[in-house]
Design brief:
Chain A is built from 15 helices and 15 strands. By secondary structure, chain A is α/β, with parallel strands linked by helices. The termini of chain A are far apart. With about 400 residues, chain B is mainly beta. Classes of the chains: A alpha/beta (about 425), B mainly beta (about 400).
């Protein structure tokens, strides 16, 4: 009967699926073999953030993020030398509300407090090793090749396979089928974060030689891997947060008395508005003091209360370890440029993928839109860097991981899936 | 009259609509019409003519005609982040229930009055918690209820004209996550407000030869303007100075004009069929702007481009009289997306839609018709971008709508 047929027809409509399905993306390894991926590098690879290496930071290291995505393209386990807690060796900072010397409430990094688990300081290799994330905070390029480095660097000491090993040996021992190498920042940073007062910049020929040695040994295990270059310091909040011309004078009285104080020094003149900070400079011909040029860099570590309340930068000079002079900036920039040229050349020579982190961070200075979020290199609010102003935030790590993935995919025809930075936490505000 | 207003007031809190047509237009204005692919303008079955084509209202055979109905919409949109990615997310939309109430009365030989209360626009979208696009949109509910007093005049046997004045009450409520967080979670902004705006609806109904109906109708643009919508921010305590309390925001959303041209023909005692072209003036939706009363360094006014395009919806539908008191209907339409390829925001994921519909009417006694309608809408999968936020991916949607109405003529 027609009527019944209709009822059947109509009830069938109720059963049509309402759930739209988009076919799942099927990742592929392409020409690469990700089954044993080893990440070699420094604090950036380790997942160091907010001034310390700690568990949740390690979980969102770009290396770990990338390794998890590689699982979809056939990768195996990626073991990390995890700290036991959120405090690591105890240097972590968090964002806190504090009163400055003027009594204003300000947001600033403050010590996280608490007592680190003593187990953070003991060797974990025999119980938890070997490890695939061989990122050693503080490591310079020569340290990767230095036997017994674990005795000098406790971050390596706690997960080194033995006391006399080289960092590189622990990577080679895993027989990697794929490796990443991001090294070189500390070869200039030690110098740069001391305001050029201590540390030395690794000479660029030496850097290239050592880099080639490392690649010779790594590629003896696996001819496939990815290298990353070094960001210029101009894109790092540690160097670009406090403006060199940050001394604001609003009253003529202030201007006059400061000019009087420094009378006779041809390198110091104050006027209404923004002025260069007064800094110590042994090379200055008068009083070993001068004012900063606009393109010089004040370090994030300068004690701001001293500037606000104790006359630093105006009456008294800011000590030389808190700024980089034009000359020092050129030394650092020249070294980084040479390192990056070397990395670029060696990537070609060894036929490896190359991630241009330097360009990524330079683009980020003015802001990039990414998956519905805007990022820039501004301190705290920019979203890319953690509170130490040098190391990445979880979202910064996600973006960096995506750039590694993009470089690997385009070199090896693989399709490792990218992550969405929105799925990682931002900075925690009080 | 008082009772009707109470009724409207009550329904306003109940009704949540979902975009079924391109952007945020909902075309469920009668279940006979729904069964026939929403061809609308050339039909003169019942009191739904008040809305579908005021001209046709004057041609109704009965002196009084009443009609009421309600639909339930289940819809889901799925999102896949731009490849290579395995990230997918889906909406978890609340079930929405658009409704209609129509009444017509012939007060003189060729003169009819009518009233329509219905929900021609709406959007109700709720993305899953924590989804990748939450900083663009987490949840939006746009509801517009229109009240339309209408007059129609039959010029001659073959031509009738009608026009109505439209009072649109709108309610907007949207939530976006803010990329600032504390230990207990992410910040959020909730913008909500009510507004009343006006427009008109006019139509011509032409019967050149017996059994052939031609309808031409036009519904005007209505600009839903919210001058002082509430903007409530929940952010970490230490940032509250950047997001002042008691802030308001001005915003507006155009409800686009529609020009419908339809033709239907009664082939026999049992069969009638029609086609309609439905031109929607979506280009009125140029941008979605938020102008905050109080701006701070972290809270700027927003001008987000939308750049919609006008679209032509092609509709066809037919009715077949199965038994003396039982009618079967079927229809289909293709509704191209008005959304700009590079400004495709997940708050209104309007895809190219194919609608398939069917329906039944049961006439248990003279003058009374019980109408059932079913509509299945397939939003065709598309890779698309929202460039201002670099939010790119693939969208696909499905909606399943069923409903019933009752019409009574005497």
């Amino acid at each position: 009967m027609k009527f019944r047929t209709l009822i059947y027809l109509l009830s069938a409509l109720f059963l049509i699926s309402c759930e739209p399905e988009i076919e799942a993306f099927k990742p592929d390894a392409g020409e690469a073999d990700f089954s044993v991926y080893v990440a070699l590098g420094n604090s950036l690879t380790a997942g160091y953030a907010n001034g310390e290496l700690y568990k949740s930071g390690q979980m969102v290291s770009y290396a770990n993020i990338m390794a998890k995505q590689m699982i979809h393209a056939g990768a195996g386990e990626f073991r990390q030398p995890l700290m036991k807690d959120e405090l690591g060796f105890g240097n972590k900072v968090i964002l806190g509300e504090v009163s400055d010397c003027l009594g204003n409430d300000i947001l600033a990094p403050v010590p996280a407090g608490g007592t680190p688990d003593p187990a953070n300081f003991t060797s974990i290799f025999s119980e938890e090793g070997p490890f695939h994330n061989i990122g050693v905070p503080g490591a310079q390029i020569s340290h990767l090749l230095l036997p017994g480095y674990s005795l000098y660097n406790q971050y390596f000491g706690r997960f080194a396979s033995n006391a006399s090993t080289r960092v590189l040996d622990d990577a080679l021992d895993l027989d990697p089928t794929f490796f990443s190498l991001w090294i070189g920042s500390n070869d200039v940073l030690g110098y740069a974060i001391s305001g050029g007062e201590s540390g030395v910049i690794t000479p660029s020929e030496e850097f290239k030689q050592l880099y080639r040695l490392i690649l010779n040994e790594l590629t003896s295990k696996s001819d496939k891997g990815v290298l990353a270059n070094i960001p210029e310091i101009i894109s790092i909040p540690f160097f670009n947060t406090i403006p060199a011309h940050g001394l604001l004078l609003t009253r003529q009285g202030q201007v006059d008395s400061l000019n009087l104080l420094h009378v006779g020094n041809p390198y110091i003149t104050f006027r209404l508005g923004y002025n260069g900070f007064v800094v110590a400079d042994a090379a200055s011909e008068y009083d070993a003091m001068r004012q900063l040029e606009e393109d010089e860099l004040v370090l994030l570590t300068v004690p701001q209360d001293k500037i606000k309340c104790e006359g630093w930068g105006s009456e008294f000079p800011i000590p030389a370890n808190f700024y980089l002079s034009q000359q020092q900036i050129i030394e650092v920039a020249t070294a980084i440029e040479a390192y990056n040229m070397a990395i670029n050349e060696l990537a070609g020579e060894f036929n490896l993928a190359l991630v241009d982190i330097n360009s990524l961070l330079k683009e980020s200075i003015t802001g990039i839109n990414y998956d519905g979020l805007n990022f820039n290199t501004q301190y705290v609010m920019g979203g890319v860097f953690s509170l130490d102003g040098i190391h990445l935030s979880p979202r910064g790590n996600a973006i960096v991981a995506n750039h590694f993935i993009k470089a690997i995919n385009s070199k090896y025809g693989s399709t490792i899936p990218k992550v969405s930075p929105t799925q990682f936490p931002g900075i925690i505000f009080p | 009259m008082k009772r009707i207003f109470i009724c409207i007031f009550f329904l306003q809190f109940l009704v949540v609509n979902t975009a079924q047509s391109g952007g945020y237009q909902v075309s469920l204005h009668g279940h006979k019409n729904m069964g026939m692919g929403l061809i609308g303008t050339s039909l003169n079955f019942d009191a739904s003519t008040v809305f579908l084509n005021p001209g046709a209202m004057a041609t109704l055979s009965s002196k009084y005609s009443f009609m009421a109905g309600i639909s339930g919409i289940r819809s889901t949109t799925k999102f896949q982040l731009e490849k290579p990615s395995i990230y997918q997310a889906a909406t978890d939309n609340p079930r929405s229930t658009p409704f209609y109430l129509y009444a017509t009365a012939r007060i003189a030989e060729n003169l009819s009055l009518g009233l329509a209360v219905n929900t021609p626009y709406g959007n109700s979208l709720k993305w899953e918690e924590g989804w990748a696009g939450r900083f663009l949109i987490q949840e939006i509910s746009l509801q517009a209820i229109t009240i339309q007093p209408t007059v129609a005049y039959r010029l001659s046997e073959s031509i009738s004209l009608g026009a109505g004045f439209v009072v649109a009450t709108g309610k907007v409520d949207l939530k976006r996550k803010l990329p600032v967080q504390n230990e207990s979670g992410e910040g959020e902004v909730n913008i909500s407000g009510n507004t009343v705006n006006y427009g008109f609806n006019a139509g011509v109904f032409f019967v050149p030869i017996p059994d052939l109906n031609i309808g031409l109708s036009y519904r005007s643009l209505i600009k839903m303007k919210l001058d002082k919508a509430e903007a409530v921010f929940s952010v970490p305590e230490s940032l509250s100075y950047l997001f002042p309390e008691a802030n308001t925001v001005a915003t507006s959303l155009p409800l686009p004009a529609n020009l419908d041209l339809g033709i239907s023909y009664r082939f026999s005692d049992k069969l009638m069929a029609g086609i309609t072209l439905n031109y929607v003036f979506w280009s009125a939706y140029e941008s979605l702007d938020f102008d905050f009363e109080i701006n701070t360094t972290a809270l700027n006014d927003v001008q987000s481009p939308r750049e919609y395009s006008n679209t032509i919806i092609f509709r066809t539908g037919a009715e077949y009289r199965v038994l003396e008191n039982l009618f079967f209907r079927a229809g289909a339409y293709f509704d191209p997306s008005p959304v700009n390829e590079i400004y495709f925001s997940p708050e209104t994921p309007g895809l190219n839609n194919i609608g398939l519909s069917t329906g039944l009417s049961f006439v248990p006694m003279d003058n009374l018709s019980i109408d059932l309608g079913f509509l299945y809408v397939m939003g065709i999968e598309k890779d698309i971008s929202f460039l201002p936020a670099n939010f790119n991916g693939t969208y696909k949607s499905r909606a399943y709508i069923s409903g019933f109405g009752v019409s009574y003529n005497f």
